[in-house]
Amino acid sequence: MTTQSRATLADVARLAGVSSKTVSRVFAEAGNVSADTREQVLVAAKRLRFRPNNLARSLRRGGVTNTVAFVIGDLTNPFYFHVAAGIERELALRGLTMVLATTDDSPDSEERVVDALISQRVRALLLIPIADDQSYLEGERQLGTPVVSVDRPARNLLADSVVLQNRLGMAEAVRSLTAIGHRKIGFISNPSAMYTQRERLAGYREALREVGVVETAQWERLDDDPDISPELAVQSLLDLPDSPTAIVAGNNRGSAGAVRVLRNLKPPVAFIGFDDFELADALGISVVAYDTMELGRTAARLALDHLADPGAFTQQIEIPTRLIHRGSGEILPPR
Amino acid sequence: MTTQSRATLADVARLAGVSSKTVSRVFAEAGNVSADTREQVLVAAKRLRFRPNNLARSLRRGGVTNTVAFVIGDLTNPFYFHVAAGIERELALRGLTMVLATTDDSPDSEERVVDALISQRVRALLLIPIADDQSYLEGERQLGTPVVSVDRPARNLLADSVVLQNRLGMAEAVRSLTAIGHRKIGFISNPSAMYTQRERLAGYREALREVGVVETAQWERLDDDPDISPELAVQSLLDLPDSPTAIVAGNNRGSAGAVRVLRNLKPPVAFIGFDDFELADALGISVVAYDTMELGRTAARLALDHLADPGAFTQQIEIPTRLIHRGSGEILPPR
DNA sequence: CTGTTAGCGCTTTCAT
DNA sequence: ATGAAAGCGCTAACAG
């Protein structure tokens, strides 16, 4: 079984008895080919198992590929994956394919990874910024490559962005707790340094301030060490002399930890998580939910819009969140 | 802000006062360039914001890109994206990037999608087969493109494959139930037509046969209609005059349904799921678990091995499963 | 260590 | 409707 080489346009042309340009026309669907010739070309192509070489095509066409890059920090996070699914779906509608690259959550590798993708001449760049600075993309943006920042805004770069309604969503959750009488409300967040968590924290504080609670530091458990389990953070809140009657979590990780600690607690502690999760319904956990795939779809759409109209203004889009009441957030404070 | 064009090797060469081949050498890291020249080239490249054009490079090098394709049916399935994460991680180690394409679980689009990827000259093809027949890939395989079938074997194609220990894993789970006295054991599976489910069903029957239970049809709930909820399947088992004392689920979907129905049931029904899931520990659900990312890593490794040694034999690898005892699988039968 | 020439497979441009 | 020639940006194969 020898490894034979691939058939080219010229091979097909020779076999079909036409010029390679004619074969090109058939495969580029450029019209202007008689039905007869077309038929012959297709037969020849099939016999030779011809597949057009997109590298050559893209090169000749000025480096325009049909791939779009999505750069993620950590692929194992289900959140990012749903975003990726949304992106892929939207791109597929326009015949584009997604190339996925990860930076292993390392700010240093972001530019390197992006560079490699640019060398591959991706048509647009969607990324979840990890580094502190995306100004290195300015040149590329000026060359006409749409850049869309996903889940957090890019820094030092004028780019489209799509983020969640972090602040409002969390504020709404906390308001629903204050509305039923809670005042001592804990907030757990880890890692707390990132944009989304800072925004959600702001929403938490905002809602508490509205009911006159200004001193919230004692209720906040903001950690950045991944080794500190959310269970510990929750427990430390419960161990306070004046322990909270309700707890909110800044992310899924926190919710999982809270669920483990809070179930079967007597007197029950109210809880609302940010991010929906499997079985949250069965467990009766109230959450701030949103359409993760829509985040991806919107990001892709922004990129495609920019491709269609390079002069379009940059946009900052917020994906709405909604509070889902399932019981845990409706637990009243004691007395 | 005019859209200027990209700098090329030749532009850099002109500015640096060298030949383009020298610039090429600098960027291809081919050595044989004096430190001085190298420095000048890099300066010029930086000034012009030069990024090598990988399309041209790959074309010239004989169509060898540094991308590997992973073809999935449905990206929203968390299982697949953990596989993708494993693949991506393994590829990144060798400087390869993953392009992800989906077929929307439509067998008809599989060949079309794969064709497009081949046109992009991906270096290897990893796929979760959806169609009934992958013989269309035979030509490509003969041209030297490694093809690895993931999670199920390919049909009518001699390709590497990586699958889970489906049969053994499920048999082990059922054996652990029969060992503590269960004989009436339900099996729910939806969709049941696919390879993994058929294998797990076989493992279930095998383990029951070992203890003399041959008539299992009454305990099997094999559905293919996604509109039939696993909850209904579980309920229909419980409604039997001689209802099962234990239930096993063929997949995650079934587990979620079973958990919803079985919690708070009095007399409790034993349960073991296939696939681990978030909070399964908190809920005390016993499962057959496995390393999903390892599935991906192994698939990528197989492809890379074949790239390194095109003559290597095709391999069929099974990723081991392990039974995790968390309580729900240790519930004894009544009396 | 550096340069010249040719050409990867395709499409653009201009003929016919 | 079809074809010939040129060239996209890069590197292989040779020089020197």
Automatic annotation (TrEMBL), chains A, B:
InterPro entries: HTH_LacI (IPR000843), Lambda_DNA-bd_dom_sf (IPR010982), Peripla_BP/Lac1_sug-bd_dom (IPR001761), Peripla_BP_I (IPR028082). GO terms for molecular function: DNA-binding transcription factor activity; transcription cis-regulatory region binding. Residues 7-61 form the HTH lacI-type domain. The keyword Transcription regulation applies. This is LacI family transcriptional regulator. It comes from Cryobacterium lactosi. It holds the Pfam family Peripla_BP_1. The keyword DNA damage does not apply. Keywords: DNA-binding, Transcription, Transcription regulation.
